[in-house]
Amino acid sequence: MPDKIFLDQMSFYGYHGALPEERQLGQRFLVDLTLETELYAAGSTDDLSRTINYADVFKQVQAIVEGDPCKLIETLAERIATAVLHTFPLAEACRVKVIKPDPPIRGHYASVAVAIERRRVMAYLGLGSNIGARASFLKQALEQLDNVPGVRVIRCSSIYETAPYGPVEQNDFLNLAVQIETIMPPLALLDTVQQIEKAMLRKREIHWGPRTIDLDILLYDQTISHTERLALPHPEIARRAFVLKPMAELAPHLVLPGINRSMIELWQTLEEKEGVRLWKTSNGAGKYGLFEN
Q1: Rounded CA gap, 165 and 172, in Å?
Q2: How many CB atoms within 10 Å of residue 117?
Q3: Alpha carbon distance 27, 49 (integer Å)
Q4: What is the tens place of the pLDDT at every residue in 169-223?
Q5: Confidence band (pLDDT; 50, 70, 90) for 288?
Q6: Domains located in the chain, CATH noted
Q7: Average model confidence (pLDDT) for the chain?
Q8: The pTM is what?
Q9: Spatial distance between the Cα atoms of 91 and 89, rounded to a whole number of angstroms
Q10: At what angle are helices 73-87 and 54-65 packed, to 10 degrees?
């Protein structure tokens, strides 16, 4: 069982609510917060720098609850979880409960509340572009991804030039794989990458057609899930050289869930490796080092 830090029944006055009177008059809010973190180092050394300062957490929650209003306490809870996990890297997960002790509804009840849990998850995305300034599009997509609250780009593979997949006549692609840390659930992450594609004028008029940018969620932790919108892991990872080659470089020993074989093993045993050429080697100089001269 992971170690935890609890901040319970923090009390603030804010102006959140769907009704006009809630946003004009305000009301009291209670917040319970639970952080998962490893506490052995702090406990064995008595060193404050090796734990999470709960006084700083309190101040951040206070600033959010007493700050800009929102209609839903669900939104308030998301703001708190996102901010706390962004600010305190020692926190692996955050559980937030926002309570309205006196909501403006008729009936007998003690309170109304919402509770959410968000945790850091490693995910891997595949990026590709074969229109115009291909490398520039890749970099722009990475920067937009890194600016999304709840997402952090960790590192990228080298860039590979690859022959187009499928029957459509088109230019060669530049492809890479990227490791990210996120607190977003899978479908929320899918919405985010599709919004980035749309902002970068990605068109979906031709299946397997040319595109300014393509962002695919390859893996989300070790999740195995198949829905109408999203299959995890991506069902084509083990068959596509332009995905396997950058993944084998980025995370060679990462095991593909469901198949239970590592990326490097899948690459080494792939029969069709043709059409994937190293275009630019990652120099390891930070998240975007491969784009520097």
Answers
A1: 9
A2: 14
A3: 35
A4: 678 999 999 999 999 999 999 999 999 998 987 665 555 557 789 999 999 999 9
A5: low
A6: 4-119 (3.30.1130.10), 121-291 (3.30.70.560)
A7: 91
A8: 0.87
A9: 5
A10: 140
Distance between CA 24 and CA 18 in Å, rounded? 11
**Residue-level pLDDT at 204:** 54
Flag the least confident range among 63-72, 245-254, 266-275.
266-275
Q: By the 8 A CB rule, do 225 and 186 touch?
A: yes
Task: Report the catalytic residues.
Answer: 100
DSSP letter for each residue of the chain: ---EEEEEEEEEEE---SSHHHHHH-EEEEEEEEEE---HHHHHHT-GGGS--HHHHHHHHHHHHTSS--S-HHHHHHHHHHHHHHH-TT-SEEEEEEEESS-S--S--S-EEEEEEEE-EEEEEEEEE-SSSHHHHHHHHHHHHHTSTTEEEEEE--EEEEPPPSS---PPEEEEEEEEEE-S-HHHHHHHHHHHHHHTT---SSTT---S-EEEEEEETT--EE-SS-EES-TTGGG-HHHHHHHHHH-TT-EETTTTEEHHHHHHH-S--TTEEEEE----SSTTGGG--
Q: Who has greater pLDDT, 72 or 168?
A: 72
Give the pLDDT confidence score for residue 220 in this predicted structure.
97
How many of the other CB atoms lie within 10 Å of CB of 111? 10
The structure tokens listed for 78 are: 């998301």
